[in-house]
Each structure stands twice: as C-alpha cells, then as structure tokens.
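Form 7-S
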Amino acid sequence: MEFPREFFYDEVRNGFYIPGIVKRAWAASLEILAVIDKICRKHKIRYYADFGTLLGAVRENNFIAWDDDLDIMMLRDDFERFVKVVKKGLPKELKFMAVEVNRDSCSFISAVGLPEIKFNEDVMKKYHEFPYPASVDIFVVDELAKDPEDEAYRMELLSMLATMTKGIMDKKENTKIFQKELEAIEDLLKIKFDREQSLEGQFYALMNRVFQEFNGEGGEMLACMPFRMLHAKACFPKAAFKETVWLPFCNTKIPVPKDYDSVLKAKYGDYHKTVKAGGGHGYPYFQHYIDELKNELPEDKWTFEYRFSEEDLEHKKIPNFRDMALETLEYLVLKNKRIFECFMAGDFSACLQLMGQIQEEAIAFGNAVEAKKGEGSETVAYLEKYCEALFHSYKAVEEALPLQEESGEKKGPAGNFPAALWKDLQNMVQKPASYLKKVKLALEKDFKRVVLFLPSRFEQLNSFQSLYEALGEMEDVECKLMPIPYFDRLGGGALDEMHYEGEEFQKLYPIVNYKDFDFTMERPDCIVMLSPYDEFNQVYSVDPFFYSKNLKNFTNKLVYIPSFVTDEINPKEEEDGKAFENMRYYVTVPGLFHADLSIVQSEEMKKAYLAKISAFTNSVIRKKMTTKISGAGSCLFGEEEENGSKAVIAAFRRFLMKKEDLQP
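Output:
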C-alpha cells in the first residue's frame, strides 16, 4: 500500500497527540489487512471492521486518534472457512494465531500478523519501517440461544470457567479447593482434563466450544462472546449483517455491516459522543517490545529511548559580539568616569594617563566594530567623535598642568585657577561622556538582538508566525528565518531521504540559507527551535547539526516552541491516561531539557509537563525545570485568546531582554 510521507509524521487530531511511530503501526496493520482482504475476496469470506476500527470508519473514516491497532470481526461460519485457507494465502513473514490452530493458546482473540521481532530490513520496508510486531485482531461472532434461559445458563457456565482460568493464572491449580472444583466441572460437562498438559489452554479451548453451542439453532441475536462476558448487553441483531457496505478508511476502504448503528450502539451506547479511551497502561501496545528490539540491534546502533543526564540542564553562556561590544562600552563609561574623578581630585597626571589609554582602547573598539559591521556605521561615527572630544580634553588638561604646578597648591580643584577657566576645563573633560551615550544608542541600533527561527516543515509556521512578525517590528530585535532540512528515519534509526521546504517559506518571508550561515561567528542572541527530539523521534529527524544538544553551543538563549497544541491533560484523570502516556514522545526528549525556556500552551499544561518530567526523572529535576517552562500560551490560539499570541510575545520578550550571566 502507498501512503503520502506526511501521513507518518506526528500530528494532533481531536486534541490528541499521535506520535509518528503509532502511524507506522497503523500502516503496518493496514498492510496486513490487505493480505487478509485478498484471501477473503478469493474465497468469498465476509469480514467487517470491529471495535475502534468500526467506530473510526463510521465516525471519521480513519483510525480513532487514541487507537493503536486494527480490529475486524467474522461470523463463525466465515471464520471457520478462513481458518482452513489462511495459512496458504499468507506470505512467509506473517502468521495466523488462534485457539483453533494453537493448542496451547490462551487468548480468544485470533490474529494475523508479524509475531516476533526479527530485525529484517526487507520486512520493515514492506511494513512501512515499523520495527515491532504488528497484527490485525480477529473477533469471532456467535449466535445467542433462542431461549433466554439457555443463554443465561451458558453465561453462568462461562463465568464459572473464567473463574477457574483466573485460578490457574493466580497459580492456585494445585490447591485442594481448585482440584475439587475441577472435578465438579468434569462431572457436570462429562469431560476429562489432561493433567499432564496445560490446563489454561484446555480451559480456553473448552470455553471456545461453549461460545459456539447455539450456532445454527435459529437465534436472531449475535455477540462476540468473550466481550459479552464483560458487557452483558453487547449483542446485536443478525439482520445487521445481511448487507455489507464499504466505507473510506485512512487511504483505503473497509467493510462494515450495513446496520452498523445497531452494532455500535450495542458496544458503545452513544457512539457519536467522543470519549477518549481511558488509562495509559499498556498503550501503545508495542512499548513492551522496546527492550527486546534493542537486543536485536548491535550496540553501536540507535537506541530508542532518551536517557536523561543532569548535564543536559547545563548551558555554558559565552558572549557574542553584541555582548562583548556592550561590555566594552560599559568599560569605557567606567573609565571615563574615573578620568573625571581624577580631574576633580586635581590628579592631572593620572587623568592624562587614563585619557591616553582609553583613547587607544576606543580606537581598537571602533576598528572591531567596523570589521564586523563594515564602513559607515553609526557606532563608529560616534566613537570617532568621542575620540576627537577625548583628544581635545587631553590637550586642555595637558595645557593646564603647568598652571597647577606653578600655583604651588595641593592637588585639588581649587588652587589659583580662575573660576571661568576651571569651569571650561570641567566641560572639556565631561564632554566625551556625552558621546558615549550616543555610542550606546547607535550600538544597539547597529547590533540588534538577533533571534533565529529554525522551522523544518512549512506547516510549523502558524505556531510561531505571530511571534516572528511581532519581533520583526521591534526596533531592537532582528529576526532571521532559517528553514532547515529534515529526514525520514528508517525502522532501525538510520536517516533516509532528505527534505527541504525553504522555497515555501521564501514565498512569504526572506530566509537565511542554512548552508551559508556561520553559527560560530554569528552566535545569535536567541535560537528558537521547533523540533526538540534530537535523535529520538523514530520517524522524523532534522539534520543532526540542528539537534538541541548542538544548538545550545551557539547561543545563550535556546527556546523551544511546540508546533502543536492538544487538549488539556490532567495526569490524575483516567480519561487522559493515553494522552499523558504519549507525552513521553514530546516531553521526555532532549530539547526540553537543553532549552533555556520552553513556552507551552497553558499553565495547566505546564503542570502536566512537570508531572511527566517528575515521573521520568525525579522531584529535584522537576523543581529545576519549573523555571525553564512557561505556560504563557501558543500562537496557534490566535490573537484574541487569553493565552494566545500576545501572551506568547510578552513572555518571549521578557526572556529575550533578561540579562545573562556570561562566562568571562
């Protein structure tokens, strides 16, 4: 099957974050379904979407955002025919698993899939670079008894057998009570269990026979019996399956019962109401395969999970040219102040010495600015005027020195200097300082704070566009937009095809070519990243040069802005369990810890981030991260929202203007 590459990238749908690796699970299961469909078409076997897949097909023509697998159902007679032909129709990498063919099977869910992890590049390519086991679950539908009393008895029997099965799982099968109950069942059903074989598998096989007890006896209602054991009202009319309709689903079509309404109401009640499946335990299903897959990879290959280190919180701050220029100017201001103090104290010799020294330093400073900015800068022009004023004051003090010596008075502002002359000297010595004020204004104009935005995909633009435009209108900030290349990632972690969407950005704004930008020389005041994953997104990667662990070496302020918003997540709410679980894909990643500031969509979401961080690390790290995360909002909310663009711009501006403690 063919999918557009964008299909596999992380997205938010219905307020729920779907990681790209779940998209690959979907694609792999659809590939398996295509094999099942081919077999069923060849042998005229009916099948239908079931559970979340049926719900998604009817309600969204797609997977439910928080679903991680694909389910189908078959009526019992269709399933029995499928069992007989499926093995011959499967490619060698796929297996059919069912209690009917696996004697020791302890599951009522049949499946066709990739049952084991085998790090096979050809197989992964065929199944869309999904590196874990994948399958399509098959649920079998049986008839209910015509007589309600018969059905009630069957349900009592199944409940008893299920209790015995749980006893086996709890390792109680050798107790006297269990053995006594086992003998009672044998007497009741006129059967004999093989004590030398797995009792659990025998109980599953027995229950499977009980499921089929009333098939073909004219009952008008159907049910998936294992599901009905937990949900007694989950049954639906046989007439619902008289006709089949094919609904669009993802990039294909899938069969559903024409009266899907009855089936969905039986299973979900008001199925039109969106309810997130609660609980994150076991979601997504492939999480428990990660360690197993690591064992299949050589040690030097990609590991699939980020491991936090406290060093990731460290960020050595090194001044860029603008920082150094402002520091130099502060130094000149202090030295100039010292000149005036020496003058007022009557220490003309020290005053002249300082003037000569600062003159040389100001000239060197001007040369450095000119080398960086080029000729004609306002900063250099005012530095030249400063040096000229400093020269004239030097000459004036130098000429006044003999008068001071002739006066024979002690050093000080008094002496025999005429009052008018003393006042003129004061003005001459003070005048250079006025030019330093103008140098500062010119310096801030010539060397604005540079904010560099690093999007990779054009669709990320909306998440920072308002901020970019607002900063661009500020006189003291220069915004630069640098689209960066990104790659698809193969199932084993290697980078695949490169993509670059700079042309799309260039239609709206001037861009900086990433190939021509010297990060070491330029050292932007702030870098804004949209991708926090570094090497730990299993589907997508920006060019490794732009990983957060590298970017923080080229700026003193690294900011992460998520390119998405989700529904609010409460870690304590069961319904948010899967959403909280999925935060592992965008919270417990390097960029969040490397960034000096991350601006998330709300204060409540900040709490969810911190809860995830605490579970991932510890409460100490959580406390440290509190100041590194802002819950100001998101540009995706627009201008009018309380936590929209204006709030983000204000929070960003405060952070940008905050003075850093730089390394000497």
